[in-house]
């Protein structure tokens, strides 16, 4: 079983905060994807345990991002399609620079519809 959550912020530009997010991803054994560099800032987190996702989200809250919105609360990952066959990437943080690229990765992770709904696009 896997769990995930989605966070939207005004922007993600502080390299000090990104470093803190990376440390938290490693500490809580989470896979994290960030859309950084402009508006909107988007954070996707996925882990084997719900408590790991919740702990990582708690770290993000404490960083006091402008316009922090937990658009999809930590919960059971519901992949699109018959079965979820993608391996969970190792813990850590990856960054992308565009919403399109972020969406492409959500599609590859088979959570594109869930992501679009959380972002308010659907």
Mean pLDDT equals 92
Total strand count, please? 5
Q: Helical stretch count?
A: 4
The figure for the number of domains is 1
Task: Name the strands of the widest sheet in spatial order.
Answer: 4-1-3-2-5
Question: In a few lines, what is going on in this structure?
Answer:
The protein is an alpha+beta fold and 122 residues long.
Description:
Helices cover 36% and strands 26% of the residues. The chain is of the alpha+beta class and 122 residues long. It has one domain (3-119): Alpha-Beta Plaits, CATH 3.30.70. The protein has a five-stranded mixed beta sheet with strand order 4-1-3-2-5, sandwiched between helices. A hairpin with a 5-residue loop joins strand 2 (31-35) and strand 3. Helix 3 runs antiparallel to helix 4 (112-119). The longest helix has 13 residues, at 15-27. 33% of the residues are buried. The model has no long low-confidence stretch (mean pLDDT 92).
Walk me through the topology.
Layout lengths: L2 E7 L5 H13 L3 E5 L5 E7 L2 H13 L6 E8 L15 E5 L2 H10 L3 H8 L3
Parallel strand pairs: 2-5
Antiparallel strand pairs: 1-3, 1-4, 2-3
Helix pairs in contact: 1-2, 3-4
Provide tags for this entry.
single chain; 122 residues; alpha+beta; Alpha-Beta Plaits; 4 helices; 5 strands; 26% strand
């Amino acid at each position: 079983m896997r769990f995930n959550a989605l966070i939207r912020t005004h922007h993600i530009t502080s390299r000090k905060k990104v470093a803190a997010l990376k440390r938290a991803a490693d500490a809580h054994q989470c896979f994290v994807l960030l859309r950084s560099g402009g508006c909107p800032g988007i954070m996707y987190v996925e882990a084997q345990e719900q408590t790991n996702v919740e702990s990582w989200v708690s770290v993000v809250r404490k960083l006091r991002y402008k316009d922090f919105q937990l658009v999809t609360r930590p919960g059971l990952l519901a992949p699109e399609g018959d079965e979820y066959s993608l391996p969970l990437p190792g813990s850590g943080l990856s960054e992308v620079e565009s919403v399109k690229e972020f969406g492409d990765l959500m599609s590859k992770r088979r959570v594109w519809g869930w992501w679009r709904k959380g972002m308010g696009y659907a």
